[in-house]
Records
---
Amino acid sequence: MMTKKTLAALLASSLVTPIMADEKAELLKLRQDIAKEREELLDLKNTTANLIDVFVQQGLLDKQKAETLMKAAKAKAAVEAKQQLAAENAESKATDGQDTAKPKEPKSIRFAYVPEFVKEEIRQEVIAGLTGKVVTEVKADAKKEKWGVPAALPEWLDNIKISGDIRLRAQDDFFGSGNPQNAYLDYLNINHNSGVLVAQNKNEAFLNTTEDRTRFRERFRIAIDAKVTDGLKAGVRFTTTNEFSPVSSNQTLGNTGQTYQVAFDRAFIQYDFLDSKNNDWFSLYGGRIANPWMSTEMLYSPDLSFEGFAGTFRWHMNQGNAVVKNYHAAQPNSRFGLQMGPQTPDSLFLTLGAFPIQEVNFSTIDKWLFGGQVGADWLVHNDSRLKVAAAYYDYQNLRARANGRDSFTYDWTAPQFVEKGNTMVPINVNDGFNSRCTDSQSLQGQGCLFGLASDFKIFNATVMYDFADFAPTHALVSLDYAKNLGYDANRIEREFPGYLGGNNKERTDAFQIRLDVGKPEIKYFKDWSTILAYRYIQRDAVLDAFTDTIFHQGGTDAKGWMIGGNYGLAKNTWLMFRWFSTEAIDGPPLDINTLTMDLNMRL
């Protein structure tokens, strides 16, 4: 017979078992809810992080700003979680102390607290409202900082870069009182007219060496560079010009209201190979390109472009060094007249180039420039930088070849452009039997078509040291030396017997020393720099066609000083002043003083 105790135990068992089952079910449900909430939170966290990454990749936020937003959000979350937990603890204590007589509910099981703002604020504000909020903030920054929202613009527009510059120049040329008149033939004008210069206009055959003159000039250039794909770009540059000159794009004012001429100064394709660390190992260029050489205005005018193909190859060192990684070089030609070459500190570089100078009709012999330059670039102390380079420039088929009587076979050896200084010899002799020279009174006994006497095979060594210990003021010392190894006096005498007489001498050395002190680039108001230079350039040291056009009015066979400076008037606006005092080395006396004042603006 069942006892009372047994009955009570059975009754208790029947009551407890359902309660325990209910508690287990509730516990299981709570665990599932927590796991679901954790999954949702993880999903929200990843969504938020990925959304911000997308904004960074699309250009809506920069990386630094995104990291700042994330840190701020985490800090705010931590503060609000503590405040929420403190409020709930205070509420719990207040509830426990309200009515001690009231039967207490069974104690509930406590789990780790998940703040409501994480489930609601992140879910609602981040997912639903983050995009609009961020875009609003980005647009506000874009309006203030003027950088725009790339995603709102056509993709091709983001790959186009437009730049340009304007220069207004006042130039005064003062000639020495001892300069002889009609002492320097204008070979360029003679060749362009094929020697046909009438007697009553003989001044066209000579350069002005006695009459001072003032000229006002303008240069306007605009460049368009387009990124085709990673590492590959194409570019063109338009410029004013009013004369056939590869070394000057100045438009001289005073054309009776005629419109200005515009020319393609550059048109090129460029490929840059960069590794995963953004090191540029080599660059390839083709078309009409900027000067690829480390050089000075003694060899190549600042306005000179090169037609052909070139490649620069680099070997990097110390790229993990913080000073090297953080070094920001000025523009390659930021100091007017100096071309710094490859801007890769702590590297060795090699530049090779092949440039057609003139295509010759009815002949397989064209005029070419083949060049090679090897150099090194070191950050010797902090941002103080030393660059050294040695180059060899081999000009092919440039020298004159004498025609036979009344023959035109070698007319192509006459250069298309010259300045003055190089030794010239007649291709066609005006001996009365040459049908090309129809005017017996002009240049009698001379030639009616002229060419270069010498070959040009130039060795060039350049050193530049940029001392930056007093930054932002820099002191740049540059040394440039050139030697033409192509002059052959015996060959010249053999091919043009007696024409040069006692002037058939090797005059083939040139050097320049220059000091620049001040800001490397003139960008803002009160930025300044000064220039002091001395140049000595014998008549056949370099090709006179490509040298600076202001020093001694261009060309070679000159020595003298240049002093000048730059001063910033406003952002990207500055004045440049230069004074040149030069004289001839070997030719007839020719003293020239030149003053230039340039107003420059960069677009």
Note: The two ends are 111 Å apart (CA to CA).
---
Amino acid sequence: MQITTKRHYLSTVFALLSTVLLLCQSCTEAGKNGTNKTVFRYNQPEALSSLDPAFARNQANIWATTQLYNGLVELDQELKIGPGIAKSWNVSEDGRTYTFILRDDVYFHDHEVFKGGKGRKVTAQDVAYSFKRIIDPATASTGAWIFNDKVLSDKNGAISDTAFLAVNDSTFKIYLNEPFIAFLEILTMPYAFIVPQEAVAKYGKDFRANPVGTGPFVFKQWDEGNAIIMHKNPKYWKKDEKGVQLPYLDAVQISFITDRKSEFLTFMQGKLDFLSGVREGSRDLILNNDGTVQDDFKGKFTVRKEPYLNTEYIGFQLDPKNLKDPNPAVQDKRVRQALNYAINKKEMIAYFRNNIGIPGHSGMVPPSLPSFSEEKVPGYSYNPKKAKELLKAAGYTLQKPLKMRLSTVAEHKELAEYMQKKWAELGMQVTIDINQGPAHQESVDNGRAPFFMKSWLGDYPDAENYLALFYSKNFAPAGPNKTHFVNKEFDKLYEQAKLERDVKKRWEMYQAMDRIVVEEVPVIVLYYDEVLRLTQNNIKGLEPNPMNMLKLERVRKN
């Protein structure tokens, strides 16, 4: 596993960084620039393509749009639903009609698209417009799925004109085809943020770079590839518990340093206030193998390891029709189970992720969700003896070894090689194919990868979002069922759970579905992700949550 060589290399880099730390201790507070203005600086190494919530499909876009807009409802730090632009709501007895009562003090940002350049009050008509815009084919939003097949539609699947109804300026209704228990969670997503028709009409496609919202910060400038600047919204409608208007910060600056080492060094120099998702190399410098902070870095900045709604897994393509060279071994459940038992997930996370992550010893649903129970959904822990027995029962021996090809991307090369070694110890011969991200995604989505590494980052905090990966009507590429798993009992439970309003009964159904996934093994759950967050010691109020959201409205910079 070359751990000694790795540590030797890291010690050299560590020495350089220690020098940087000593120099930085005498630096002035970077956010103030000689004034009393507080500027929160974070970096976005991944591409940020749009500030339009209709295209908030990745973390980069989500984090930025979250500072500029609001939705009807929002999640708190414990992933509970609370009021946003809507101060209250109710759901009809049959679960098909949602009625929202809007606040009367929410205004769009001041902008030239409004009369006199003053932002106007948000009304129910704005909500109806924003939601209809998401599903309009002309918008081509990546978020149309949040309403398609859910809100009221005709027999041909076309969404009804009355699915979204502005009863008056302050009352808004949504009508569904059938109850969908996680619908409120879906409405917390950035796709459902509210936008003004005037700005979209003026800018068209360029609304992506000319955003107008209701959020805590107002857009000022986007120098693409270099920086985005947002200023404090002086008319923001939220106040804290003491009646002080939010946000506390004066501005937000987003930089675009793509090199991870440069990003880390910039943080160490005090020129960034926050770092999330620290990668290998930098992670090894900060943490010991057991996940504790190395002595040299204690007190230099705040390090937090937090749960993340992301399940890393290996999938089996169970539908051979699109495979160029189908491997019959994939269709044998005993083989899939043997491959699972052969991985020492705990050791893998310790060696290669500094204990960032929780071993996948249960089903697909991650621990941050309330229905999770390793006791009620026991999965696969390391058991090479059991793996050998299953391989033998399936007809594979040292003389007739199991042969597989695992598709992955460069980022997961080390993990793949570790698992390759563990499988080889039991006589399984697994070849690793490293692909570019887009090519890997396309191959998996279109059923051409028989054995592949993937992850599922929750769109909203409900177990249904993870179990949807195994519903037979959700086959990829149109849906998330990338393994083409089919199980009648699972489908029956899934359809019942979507309608069940009793929380405990629904959780029991989720657990029953997850037990089926464990038993049938369409996937090997590797680990439930965690995120490592670094903040400068003068940053207060930046609270993490399992959705890894970045909400800056209550952040202070001292």
Note: The longest strand covers residues 302-316.
---
Amino acid sequence: MSKTTDRQAPDLDFNSPALLRHRKIRRAKDKAATAGIAIGGSSVILAVLLICFYLLYEVVPLFAGAEIEAEAVYSLPYEEAGASHYLTVEEQNEVAMRVAQNGSIIFFNNLNGQVIKQVESTIAADMTAFAIEDDTSRIMALAYDNGQLIIAQHNYKISYPDGKRKITPVVVYPFGEQAIDAADFPIQQVAIRNGEEALTLVVMGESQSRIVKLEKDVNFITEEVELTETQAALPFINNATSLLISGDQRYLYIATKTGAMTELDLRDIDDIKVKAQHQLTEEGSELTSMSYLLGQSSIMVSDSEGKVSQWFNVRDEDNVENLTFIRDVSQPVGIIDVAMEQRRKGFATLDTRGVVAVYNATSSRQVINEKLSDETATNIAFSPRANGLLLEDGQGIRFFKIDNEHPEVSWGSLWAEIWYEGYQEPTYTWQSSAANNDFEPKYSLMPLAFGTLKAAFYAMVMAVPLAICGAIYTAYFMAPGLRRKVKPVIELMEALPTVILGFLAGLFFAPFLEENLAAAFSILMVLPLGILLFAYIWSRLPNQIRWLLPDGWQPIILIPVIIFLGWFCVAMSPVIELNFFAGDMRGWITNDLGITFDQRNALVVGFAMGFAVIPTIFSITEDAIFSVPKALTQGSLALGATYWQTMVRVVLPTASPGIFSAIMIGMGRAVGETMIVLMATGNTPIMDFNIFEGMRTLAANLAVEVPESEVDSSHYRILFLAAFVLFLFTFVVNTIAETVRQHLRKKYGSL
């Protein structure tokens, strides 16, 4: 008889010192991990927000309004000389100048009106007309009722006696102090234009007009400029009120008070003809002024109805220049005077109410519209830096300080088509700098945004099919042993520096592709067909041969097939070009199809940037597919589905959130890529979806131009705006991706 002994289990002490210490340490670790994760996540969010706020901090001043502030008011200097024909101030806003009605040139202190220097006319006659070439050259023509005129130029010498700046105004006579006998009649209108080879003067009297051309020749012995004078009669235009000579001295524009303009061709002084007739103002309005904008390309016309219109020459299909209306701005009442900025495409208007409005011609943006005087105002003038404004009225002279940093920027100039000087039609153009000061900045972000999307599109066209199909096969069909070798190798591709990829694409692949265009396109057809043909042949081989290769290792034997097919296409490229494209496929594309071809183009970017994006999409997609629970696939197979049916109807829907995330992350990588598009494209900001032309992306533009831009300039801040646009684009793409991913996860999460 057996004896059973009841044993009582020992009591467990869950509050022993060791367990208490263990729980305490674990709680501390949990709290530390929670705090660390919270701090890290919050820091990332804070960093992103700080980047966003900093970009906004740099961008917001672009759209801030301008300010104008009264600085000084004083009576008209040397008032007995009469009102002013012309008013200006030098660059430091310290010395101003006016040309009075009697021909006196008066320099005075810009802050108190004290006369500094006075230059009297040397001709014993009344001054009847005045003209200045432009505020930059400062060359003036003073015409008199005896038919003579004097050409003068006002300059300013800066010295620093006792360490203090001293500005000394001077009047020089670049063509001699001797008066020019321009006509044998009292001059009522005069125009002047100086060039490197000649000086052209046009004078008009009560019933006749003449042109005086002074050809310049340099004496090689004395190195002095010798002038050869030629005069000729001009077709007379009745009631002419404005004369203007084009910057290249080819055309003369004569406008009447009714706004009718006659355009004369001055290229042959012995046979001057009427080139065209134009109507500058609307019916019922009178022309008040006509002058050139900076650069001497655009004519600004103001009228009594308050409208200021811009005109410049546009070439037609026959390459003939025609003066064309471009755009206009308007005030509610008539314009008295218009002043042009000396270093930007800006201008100011003075109307009959004494209201001054400041505009930018390119953007048509009004930045100032304030009443600065009463109805007696007559003249306005900008300082050279456009940071000051002189106004003459019944009380004398008023000087205003202006803060107007970014008038050329508006939503229209950034995103809409703009008709720029010298262009045949409105365009989207990015051109931020040029070789001369007369340049019209072109800050359209559309070509850059378009180039960004174009580069990303072609990269994704190449990367998405290859990466996703490769990930599907690797995760679902490939043997585990081979997968463990292939996946790390593809992921290692992501470590390749993009600057190396861009270097190879630009210097090696682009020329190679240009020389083997036929091979590139034949590969796209031959390679898939060749792989399918080989797969068909392989499936028809005897089992004894196919079983020599373990299941899932078949991609190994495709490697030599792909290499052979690639070599075959390259070898056959000259033969294809010779038989189908007259030996030159690039020439056939350019000449026969009329498609522009650049060596560094979107096709090169598609291959190079697609190669860089493939590892990102492949890795995430492969992980998503491989993470699908095996029970789902096994259940599908057990119910009779094939491997392909299981993949299409079970695995892919379940992994779709991860696959979509992979595509979006790859797209984000392509959008933000810099070095590949910088080195593998022509880096030209054009809007053309042509695969054989290049582009410039937002990221590449930032890399190129930020180091060269002037801090706080419009160009500098617009580059920050481009960065903000790129930031917003990435944010929108990620938001859409997360929304779609959550929707897919909810839809297929029950599988």
Note: The longest strand covers residues 148-159.
